[in-house]
Amino acid sequence: MFTKQMQYDDTKILGIAKTIDANSGSLLQRFVFFITSKTIHFGFQYPKLKLQIFKFIDVLPSLETKNVYSYFKIYIFDEDTEIPSFLKSSIHFFINTLFLNFIVSLIIAKIVKIFAKFFILTDSPKSINTISPSARPRTYDVLGEIALSPKEAKEYLRQYSELLKILPEVPTNIDSKLRTNISIKCSGIETRLYPESEEMSIHYLKEVLRPILRLAMKKGIGINLDMEQYDLKSIITKTAMNLFIEDTWR
User: Fold this and answer.
1) What is the DSSP string of 160-177?
2) Element housing 18 (H / E)
3) How far apart are CA 227 and CA 220, in angstroms?
4) Nearest to 109 by CA among 64, 51, 49, 46
5) Which strand (E) or helix (H) includes residue 79?
6) All structural domains of the chain with their residue ranges
7) Which of 62, 67, 157, 224 measures 20 to 30 Å from 145, CA to CA?
């Protein structure tokens, strides 16, 4: 059930991507767009492999270069994915026999960094205005994890607010598929999200989201609430439903 739903959603996402003009931008931008879209399309065809790749990428920044292949093997080769077992065994045997672990680690780390640059736009919101505009839609995100303290949560909230203020206003007559969006990691801006205390969690999350939504409405920018992990699904879903039936956000 879960896999089928994921496959359906992925197909829908890819369908929307095909409506975007891939011929806009410089020759380099078009090449990057082509390579990225083909890679993503390939990954979406294999949901188990896609999941393990994302898990591996999540842990990669904490690894020493010499250990990258060892963890790559754990996440990609040792787990059940769509890659045939004989192929995984053969590749690992070849790498081990020729003592290529470190070289392969370097290559994997380099490839991930190259792809990361396709998605990490800048290290400062203030640099956004210097980036050449593109006809393609963008969903902006602030890199970060779950906030562990109110101080961290306030800092993430400040960064989202700063990003909203810097982004240009979106024309009211724009195609909704081309709208600028911001993806909000709810656990990054509010620490008091507890599945066992759902009503209070929803209350806290609504309060912290309201200033962001007000800024977004003024600019015509869309807001995506990152579902993150399953434990927070109910809280985030109900928060969105409760907020968006209020007259202010209609």
Assistant:
1) HHHHHHHSPPPPTTS-GG
2) helix 2-18
3) 22
4) 64
5) none
6) 2-119, 125-249
7) 67
What pLDDT, in 10s, does the model give residues 74-117? Answer: 999 999 888 899 999 999 999 999 999 999 999 999 888 877 77
pLDDT, tens digit, 9 for 90 and up, residues 35-67: 667 766 776 788 888 888 888 887 888 888 889
Helix, strand, coil in percent for the chain, rounding step 5? 70, 5, 25
**Amino acid at the residue 172:** T
């209070």: which residue's tokens? 200
Task: Record the tokens describing residue 58, joined without a space.
Answer: 């999540």
- Per-residue tokens: 192: 């008091």
Distance between CA atoms of residues 163 and 28, nearest Å: 26
Describe the crossing of helices 101-119 and 27-44 by its angle, rounded to 10 degrees.
Answer: 110
Side-chain-side CA neighbours of residue 249 (13 Å): 20
Q: Hey, CA dihedral for 215, 218, 221, 224, is it positive or negative?
A: positive
Q: Is it true that domain 125-249 has CATH number 3.40.50.300?
A: no
For the chain, helix (H) and strand (E) counts, in that order, are 10, 3
Burial of 201 (0-12, 13-18, 19+ CB in 10 A): buried
CA angle 13, 15, 21 (to 5 degrees): 105
SS3 21: coil
Q: Is the CB of residue 220 less than 8 Å from the CB of residue 171?
A: yes
Q: Evaluate whether 168 touches 125 at the Cβ level (below 8 Å).
A: no
Strand pairing class (139-141; 222-226):
unpaired
Statement: the pTM of the whole predicted model exceeds 0.70: no
